[in-house]
Amino acid sequence: MASGKVLSALRALRQPLSPLLLLLLLGPWAAAGHAGKYSREKNEPAPPSKREPAAEFRMEKLNQLWEKAQRLNLPPLKLSDLHTDLKIQERDEFKWKKLKAEGLDEDGEEEARLVRSLSVILAKYGLDGRKDSRVVSSNFIDHGTDDNSLEDPRLEKLWHKAKTSGKFSSEELDKLWRELQHHKEKVQEYHVLLEALGRTGESHENAIGPVDVSGVQAEALASRHAELKDRLRNIGQGFDRLRRVSHQGYGAETGWRACPGAPGWGLRARLHSRAEFMEPRVVDLWDMAKSANFTEKELESFREELKHFEVKIEKHNHYQKQLEISHQKLKHVESFGDQEHITRNKERYAMLEEKTKELGYKVKKHMQDLSSRVSRARHNEL
Predict the structure, then answer these.
(1) Residue 123 contacts residue 192 (beta carbons within 8 Å)
(2) Contact 98, 159 (CB under 8 A)
(3) DSSP letters of 110-156?
(4) What span, in angstroms and rounded, lies between the C-alpha atoms of 62 and 191?
(5) How many Cβ atoms sit within 10 Å of the Cβ of residue 340?
């Protein structure tokens, strides 16, 4: 009897199993595999994955530049300045897209200005692929041992003269160093813009067949030439002033002259013999304002606004300095400290970095607004 049951079972095994029996034998594994669209996994949302960090900029090309700068290990202060420049560039590009959609940039001059602006940023931070084009120094480096960072032999000569003259306090040397660095950056920007304008001229000269340059395009080209001419004149005047200061000190007269009867002449005459401001960018704006077509009342108002602007720059400089100190401390703690100290220093560094970026953006935007006011006044458009 038993042997008969065994034989029956063996014969049954030789037959193909029904799908239901096979499913029961395989148990939960098969059920999971054949559940299809009715499975729990299919009908319940998947657990949330770790969120990727938000992109620094809304424009992909600017994010790529930012990531490249981080790979180049730029100093914290340079990264902060680059972040500000890219934020301003992004703001201007979105404004331009709106203008273009409304048909308000038919001649393409605003688009060309944005291209030039981005070219300056690429050259300024060494992101254009050119060797040794990056500005390595910052406002707070040990300028006493690194004269080569000025890159211009004329500026290095002025710096050496000032350092060895005994006419400058430590604070005045810091101020002069910032002015020399600022002058170097202005020269770099001028050469980038000059090269961009040269490429535009070459494209017209090398074009096959006649080139249709409309009156609007010709006017835009003339405007760019005028801009470069103004920049070159400003660079020359700035260098003359730096040469006088490096030889005579900040207490000496800076040599401003104007004709009696010019708009705002009375205030200019009272103020030309003393240093009105400390920060290089403010000094530049003030020098340009004194030669612009401001009335005396307008010039006085502009002067008061420059005072507020200088305070804003000093606050930004303070945070830049704290950021650099925090960066050096963080590197030290990461090498020798415990995890608690590392975490605390990282949090402080992140806070200072964010604040420095925020102030940098405000300073740059304010600088643009003031520069536009002076430019309009110099062209009799106020």
Answers:
(1) yes
(2) no
(3) HHHHHHHHHHHHHHHTT-SS-TT-S----TTS-TTS-GGGG--HHHH
(4) 23
(5) 9
Per-residue confidence (pLDDT) for residue 333, from 0 to 100: 86
User: Hey, is 361 helix, strand or coil?
Assistant: helix
pLDDT at 8: 61
Is residue 349 over pLDDT 60? Answer: yes
Percent of the chain's residues with pLDDT above 90: 23
**Contact indicator for 310, 318 with CB cutoff of 8 Å:** no
Q: How many CB atoms are located within 10 Å of the residue 375 CB? A: 14
Q: For residue 288, count other CB atoms closer than 10 A to its CB.
A: 18
Cβ atoms within 10 Å, residue 223? 12
- The helix-helix angle for 280-290 and 296-336 (nearest 10°) equals 170
264: left (phi over 0), alpha (psi -120 to 50) or beta: left
- Are 255 and 245 in contact by the 8 Å Cβ rule? The answer is no
> For residue 17, how many C-alpha atoms fall within 13 Å in the half-sphere facing its CB?
11
Average of per-residue pLDDT across 130-137: 47
pLDDT (tens digit, 9 = 90+) per residue, 34-69? 445 455 544 454 554 444 556 889 999 999 999 999
Residue 337 near residue 329, CB atoms below 8 Å: no
Interatomic CA distance for residues 165 and 159, integer angstroms? 10
Report whether 99 contacts 107 (CB < 8 A): no
